[in-house]
Design a protein that fits this description.
Layout (H helix, E strand, L loop, with lengths): L2 H12 L2 H20 L4 E3 L3 E8 L2 E4 L6 E4 L2 E8 L1 H7 L5 H5 L15 H7 L11 H11 L7 H4 L4 H12 L13
Antiparallel strand pairs: 1-2, 2-5, 3-4
Helix pairs in contact: 1-2
Length: 182
């Protein structure tokens, strides 16, 4: 609902649109002036409009990573009252039942022990390998891929160990010294 719709709804209760518009504008001006001067407007059962002070802080520009000093400031805030909370919240009313439930992420399947999983579900057939990198990964997964050196004596554990073993296979050539430096 926007301001015009609010005025129309109030006019339907009062009977005069001009009076409703004056009432809405007057109320909003009083709230803005009072909160702007540091006071608060408390409407019993509805809520409290107030000014909150924020301390200075150090923020970070996400694009550049540069730190930025943010000075202390005062911002307007609203705290809903208990009557407002209970009428909006889930209290078994028809309005609450009509609202759609928030979307939830699907739950992850529970871990099943290896011996139970192999008995319960047959293993799927391996997919055909299409690229050399995929062939290397498939060979590692099946255990037919071996690395030379110390990594061959111990089986690799986890993804990180597999990456380290792969990097060890690709030895980098030594860097040439820069010209002019001795």
């Amino acid at each position: 609902m926007n301001k015009t719709q609010l005025v129309d709804a109030l006019a339907s209760r009062i009977g005069d649109r001009r009076t409703a518009a004056t009432a809405v504008d007057g109320m909003l001006e009083i709230i803005v002036d009072t909160v702007g001067s540091g006071g608060s407007v408390s409407l019993t059962g509805f809520g409290v409009f107030e000014a909150r002070a924020r301390a200075p802080r150090v923020a970070r520009n996400p694009r550049t990573g540069e730190t930025v000093q943010v000075p202390a400031t005062v911002v307007p805030a609203f705290r809903p009252g208990t009557g407002f909370k209970s009428s909006v919240g889930d209290n078994g009313s028809a309005a609450a039942a009509a609202r759609p439930a928030p979307a939830r992420r699907p739950r992850r399947a529970a871990a099943v022990p290896a011996e139970t999983a192999s008995e319960a579900v047959p293993s799927p057939e391996p997919k055909p390998v299409r690229s050399p990198r995929a062939a290397k990964g498939a060979a590692k997964a099946s255990g037919s891929f071996t690395t030379e050196g110390a990594a061959a004596t111990k089986p690799a554990k986890g993804k990180a160990a597999a990456v380290k073993a792969e990097k060890a296979d690709k030895a980098k050539p030594a860097k040439k010294p820069a010209k002019g430096k001795k």
